[in-house]
Design brief:
36% of the residues lie in helices and 23% in strands. The chain is of the alpha/beta class. The longest helix has 18 residues, at 186-203. The two termini are 40 Å apart. Keywords: ATP-binding, Cell membrane, Membrane, Nucleotide-binding, Transport.
Length: 338
């Protein structure tokens, strides 16, 4: 049994103009100690998927269907009191902006001690000792001094290290990191990701990394999900997807990396933009932007426009694409004919 199982997850937002489906039939698993990346453009549903795990979706959002099981427990059926015992204790989150997470009027030490005492029956001295040990683990210089400082006295990179230290305070089974290096410069980003990877491996902590940076995903994760318009469209081993992407959207994301462009030429990009969730195209949501939807005679593939693609197995990956399904079927028929 996997540590985390997400089955047919459906998340909606009740708006005046009607319900909007932010996530549609999302399925994935996470093993203990495994590192999973979730990638896609802004609006793809990455953060909603992460917040859904602990029902942190603010109203008018709500989980409309599906199941989330953690270590055999159904989180979607758990009471708020039961979820509070899981949040921060067994599943920790690292958010994009440390200044939105840290309390500006409390010292770093006070915040870490409060977190520990909320979940464990220990003295302030014991809590402070654990907090100091975690700051040392994330390689904070002068950790004793940092415990008595306030968030505004620290640099962005140091604040993010402290957020990682807080996430590790209670020895969680899973860390969910939502764009953890967005606000940092490239050098600090690399340091933070290397630190997070090392700590997860040392403590055997599973990691869910939410990001739009395929370069980071390729270096840190073992498996990945590619999301588009609230749906997973490709998933499988990270190395296989990076080396041989099947879905046209995944191919577009990889081709848009700066290193894929010819020096001196314009960067590659996927034409168009992510559709609004309350006005999704029919059939495959990606078809208006897809170079493979239109055939050589200029007409569109009827299946792409009319039918939502089912998942097919290609190698070790699952892909939701009519074109890939057709290619696999053609290959199967040729093999049978030989």
């Amino acid at each position: 049994m996997a540590l985390l199982e997400v089955n047919h997850l459906d998340v909606r937002f009740a708006l005046r103009q009607g319900e909007v489906r932010a996530l549609r039939d999302v399925n994935f698993t996470l093993e203990r100690g495994e590192r999973l990346g979730i990638v896609g453009e802004s609006g793809a549903g990455k953060s909603v998927a992460a917040f859904s795990l602990l029902n942190l979706i603010a109203k008018p959002g709500f989980i409309a269907g599906g199941e989330i099981r953690f270590d055999g427990q159904a989180l979607t059926k758990m009471s708020e009191r039961g979820l509070r015992k899981i949040r921060g204790n067994r599943i920790s989150m690292i958010f994009q902006d440390p200044m939105m997470t840290l309390n500006p009027v409390l010292s770093i030490g006070e915040q870490m001690i409060e977190c520990l005492k909320a979940h464990r029956r220990i003295s302030r001295r014991e809590a402070r000792s654990i907090a100091l040990d975690r700051l040392k683990q994330v390689q904070i210089p002068s950790p004793e001094k940092r415990l008595d400082q306030y968030p505004h006295e620290l640099s962005g990179g140091m604040r993010q290290r402290i957020i990682i230290a807080i996430a590790l305070l209670l020895d969680p089974d899973i860390i969910v990191a939502d764009e953890p290096t967005t606000a940092l410069d490239v050098t600090i980003q690399a340091e933070i990701m290397a630190l997070l990877l090392s700590l997860c491996e040392t403590h055997n902590v599973a990691l869910i990394l939410i990001t739009h940076d395929l370069g980071v995903v390729s270096q840190v994760t073992q498996r990945m999900l590619v999301m588009y318009a609230g749906r997973v469209i490709e998933q499988g081993p990270t190395r296989e997807i990076i080396n041989d992407p099947q879905h046209p959207y995944t191919q577009g994301l990889l081709n848009a990396l700066p290193q894929m462009a010819t020096p001196g030429e314009k960067l590659n990009q996927i034409r168009g933009s992510m559709p609004s969730l309350n006005a999704l195209p029919s059939g495959c949501a990606f078809h208006p932007r897809c170079d493979f939807t239109h055939r050589s005679d200029g007409t569109a593939r009827p299946a792409c426009v009319e039918q939502v693609p089912e998942f097919v197995i290609s190698g070790q990956c699952r892909v939701a694409c009519h074109m890939v399904a057709e290619m696999l079927e053609d290959r199967r028929m040729k093999e049978e004919a030989q």
